[in-house]
Amino acid sequence: MQDTCLPQVYLKPTVERRILNRLKRIEGQVRGVQKLISNHQSCDDILIQIGAVKQAINGVAVELLEGHMDTCVAESIEKGQGTKALASLKGALTHVLRQA
């Protein structure tokens, strides 16, 4: 899928920072799940933590999509490329939602 972002447009720095911070927390959660498995902890506890990781990833996807709409999609619309930008956004949303 071709991204609609123009080379000079990307996520706002605050959004990028928030996403990177969330991903670092998720990385820690995944390490925690690995530790639970290595320590032969309860499958129930492991599944609960995996559910938390999935929710955290979904939160990253939402934040990224919102940031994408605020920057890339909005910029493309302003440049007269709204149809292309919305088609690309629709494709991205479809892909994210199918993975949920």
List keywords for this structure.
single chain, 100 residues, mainly alpha, Methane Monooxygenase Hydroxylase, Chain G, domain 1, 80% helix, 0% strand, elongated
Explain what this protein looks like in three dimensions.
- By secondary structure, this protein is mostly helical.
- The chain has a single domain, classed as Metal-sensitive repressor, helix protomer (Methane Monooxygenase Hydroxylase, Chain G, domain 1, Up-down Bundle).
- It has 3 helices and no strands.
- The chain has helices at 13-38, 43-78, 82-99.
- Helix 1 packs antiparallel against helix 2 (43-78) and helix 2 runs antiparallel to helix 3.
- The radius of gyration is 17 Å and the shape is elongated.
- The model has no long low-confidence stretch (mean pLDDT 89).
Structural topology:
Layout: H1 13-38, H2 43-78, H3 82-99
Q: Mind describing the biggest β-sheet?
A: none
Average pLDDT rating: 89
> Which percent range fits the helix content?
over 70%
> SSE order, as H and E?
HHH
Low-confidence parts lasting 5 or more residues at pLDDT below 50?
none
CATH superfamily: Metal-sensitive repressor, helix protomer
Tally of extended strands? 0
- The CATH C-level name is Mainly Alpha
At the fold tier of CATH, the topology name is Methane Monooxygenase Hydroxylase, Chain G, domain 1
Overall spatial form: elongated
The percentage of residues in β strands lies in under 5%
SS-based class: mainly alpha
User: How many structural domains are formed by the residues?
Assistant: 1
- Distance between termini? 19 Å
**Number of H/I helices:** 3
Q: Architecture, according to CATH? A: Up-down Bundle
- As a whole number of angstroms, the C-alpha radius of gyration is 17 Å
